[in-house]
């Protein structure tokens, strides 16, 4: 079993970077949510689609002032930190306790870090057997990660539901979430209690299947693209085995990471949009038949601010999760523990 302090360690290591990155991109995230829940009635005039982003942004500011751009940011930080920390902790439990559960039947062993590093070099040297072992290990770890992510998403989904409605409150006048909650405190309790009273306990789980499907699609796309780029880069290094790590290499790695994240975001975005629309519908509504079946979905509404947010978010996390930052946070954590 992982150390009892492991979950707290993940919380501490992730809280600082997530808080900075999410606070810096909160206006873009709220703009994305408001654009995602726009109905065709809101944007049926194609001549006005180019002004949709600006009008939504202006409405956000004019309704409640500049600080409304950060509406729901605290809840977003709480949810993101808890979700990632719980997912990482569950992955540790699942992978370290029974890794063979996620391996194919024809793989009798799990690659250790040394074996994984050896298989990395085997890609350069053309050793297909070791490369296959590495691929099998990556696939097994991905399975464990997907299961951990699904479990954490189900556990924390009510918080995700509340987050969407808090960000949507006070948005476009035709959004069904306007009357859901008075924003007292963080608004979590108001939103959940109101929704349960009107639509029952299962109301706060509307859109769960779409959220899980979108999360799985994102993770699979991310791993597949990352692995393909890794193999391509290793094969390209065959002729230059003594290449040193410098600014060019770091920039290339950063560009690859951003490209993988942005493409994966585009692939999973329609499912996220469907989830958001289900989350903000009338709590007494009947799911797809009311909100989705009779609408011509604009599934990529809000994709532009989401891509910009993803780029900035990953850039800030890359700085906050650098070796220097992680070493500092570890030292602080060890002092707090001991």
UniProtKB/TrEMBL annotation:
The keyword Transport applies. The keyword Endoplasmic reticulum does not apply. Residues 1-21 form the signal peptide. One of its GO terms (cellular component) is membrane. It comes from the Eukaryota. Solcar repeats lie at residues 5-97, 136-232. Pfam families: Mito_carr. Keywords: Membrane, Repeat, Signal, Transmembrane, Transport. Belongs to the mitochondrial carrier (TC 2.A.29) family. This is Mitochondrial carrier protein.
């Amino acid at each position: 079993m992982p150390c009892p302090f492991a979950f707290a360690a993940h919380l501490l290591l992730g809280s600082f970077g997530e808080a900075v990155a999410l606070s810096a991109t909160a206006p873009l995230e709220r703009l994305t949510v408001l654009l995602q829940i726009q109905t065709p009635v809101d944007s049926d005039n194609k001549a006005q689609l180019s002004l949709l982003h600006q009008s939504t942004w202006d409405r956000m500011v004019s309704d409640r002032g500049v600080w409304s751009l950060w509406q729901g940011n605290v809840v977003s930080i709480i949810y993101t930190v808890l979700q990632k920390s719980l997912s990482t902790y569950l992955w540790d439990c699942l992978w370290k306790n029974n890794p063979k559960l996620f391996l194919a039947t024809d793989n009798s062993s799990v690659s250790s870090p040394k074996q994984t590093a050896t298989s990395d070099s085997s890609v350069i040297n053309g050793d297909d057997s070791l490369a296959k072992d590495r691929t099998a290990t990556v696939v097994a770890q991905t399975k464990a990660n997907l299961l951990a992510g699904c479990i954490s998403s189900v556990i924390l989904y009510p918080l995700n539901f509340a987050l969407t409605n808090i960000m949507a409150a006070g948005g476009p006048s035709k959004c069904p979430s306007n009357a859901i909650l008075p924003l007292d405190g963080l608004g979590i309790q108001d939103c959940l209690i109101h929704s349960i009273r009107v639509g029952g306990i299962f109301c706060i789980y509307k859109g769960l299947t779409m959220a899980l499907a979108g999360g799985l699609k994102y993770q699979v796309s991310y791993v597949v693209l990352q692995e393909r780029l890794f193999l391509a880069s290793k094969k390209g290094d065959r002729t230059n085995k003594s290449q040193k790590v410098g600014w060019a290499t770091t920039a290339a790695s950063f560009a690859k990471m951003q490209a993988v994240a942005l493409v994966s975001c585009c692939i999973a975005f329609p499912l996220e949009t469907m989830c958001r629309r289900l989350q903000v519908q009338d709590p007494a509504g009947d799911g797809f038949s009311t909100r989705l079946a009779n609408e011509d979905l604009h599934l990529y509404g809000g994709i532009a601010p989401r891509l910009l947010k993803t780029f900035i978010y990953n850039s800030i996390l890359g700085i906050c999760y650098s070796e220097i930052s992680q070493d500092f946070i570890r030292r602080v954590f060890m002092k707090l523990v001991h």
